[in-house]
Amino acid sequence: MASLLVTAWSLWRVGVLMGVMGHGPTWAYPVGVLAVLMAHEAGHAVMGWHFRLRLSWPVFFPWPLPVAAWLGWTWLPAFGTLGAFLSLPGRDRLSGWAQWWVAMMGPLWGFTVAVSLLVLGIWHAVPSAGSGVHSWARLPVPLLVAWLVPPGLIWHPFIMVGWLGILITGLNLLPIPGLDGWTLWSRWAFLTHWQRAGTVLSGGMVCACLPWF
């Protein structure tokens, strides 16, 4: 619970900064990011509960602006969080196809919320009076965000939430040990045909959720 409160405070600081810059209401960014993080962890938790795993409260990782500035990491200062983690003891003792379900539901739920908030942000965004590009033009833009967000908008906080959630989903689905994508691909021999199709689809999600230019 303490990690959630500190992360909410860290995200609120970012939301205040966005409000001062004229991007939208202060509350939108912290509420949106927490919704994406909780949806991701809830997906894992629901499937863990289905397979009778012992559930724990997720741990949230804050990234306060003063810490980012103090470390000099100028490429991470505006996000307010480094994500969350949910421990599911006994997960490794599940069958391969059951582990696949637990791993898949997290990115799928988080992605759904992120895209929904992105679309909502586009609906509420206002045109930019400047150069015709969004106000976060220096950010690496995932293909899906580039396809969905029209040019010439001031990015509403919900668009920022969608951008962050989609980017995190793409990174999380990479087949790297410790990430959900690793579980999806490493259990290939134990999967049903439908699960294998879902794994291939997750590879397509990676392509859509990461910047390639």
In short:
The chain is mainly α. The protein has one domain (2-209). 58% of the residues lie in helices and 7% in strands.
Structure description:
By secondary structure, the protein is mainly α. It has one domain (2-209). The chain has helices at residues 2-20, 28-50, 65-71, 96-124, 143-148, 157-172, 180-186, 193-209, and strands at 59-63, 80-85, 126-127, 153-154. The strands form 2 sheets. The protein has a two-stranded antiparallel ribbon. A two-stranded antiparallel sheet has the order 3-4. Helix 1 (2-20) packs antiparallel against helix 2 (28-50), helix 2 (28-50) runs parallel beside helix 6 (157-172) and helix 4 (96-124) packs antiparallel against helix 6. The longest helix is centred in the middle third of the chain and has 29 residues, at 96-124. The protein is globular, with a radius of gyration of 18 Å. The model has no long low-confidence stretch (mean pLDDT 87).
Total DSSP helices: 8
* Tally of individual domains: 1
Q: Roughly how many Å is the radius of gyration?
A: 18 Å
Give the overall average pLDDT: 87
Which residues sit in consecutive blocks of at least 5 with pLDDT less than 50? none
Order of helices and strands: HHEHEHEHEHHH
Helices and strands: which structural class? Answer: mainly alpha
Strand order of the largest sheet: 1-2
Principal-axes shape call: globular
How far from one another are the termini? 39 Å
